[in-house]
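Encoded backbone
================
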Amino acid sequence: MPKGYWIAHVTVTNPERYKDYVAANGVAFRKYGGRFLVRGGPSETVKGNLKARHVVIEFDSLATAKACHESPEYAAAAKIRDEAGDVDLVIVEGYDG
């Protein structure tokens, strides 16, 4: 079965509040088995206009990735996230060729 992924591109506008988001989102990610593959770090945009911070989180399935996003645990964290920055987020099924 293909895995599910969250892919986020973030502009942090309030670094202190973003720290609160990072602390809060761990509850949902632990519950749903989310594993960070990319969490910030140096990057180079070679084409297009992307935000400065990139995050990729892997889940066991697309259904689990969606359930995490829709959970009350993540809803609480998302409120903080929206105070801390501007985020583009996609939930996508992985390739299981």
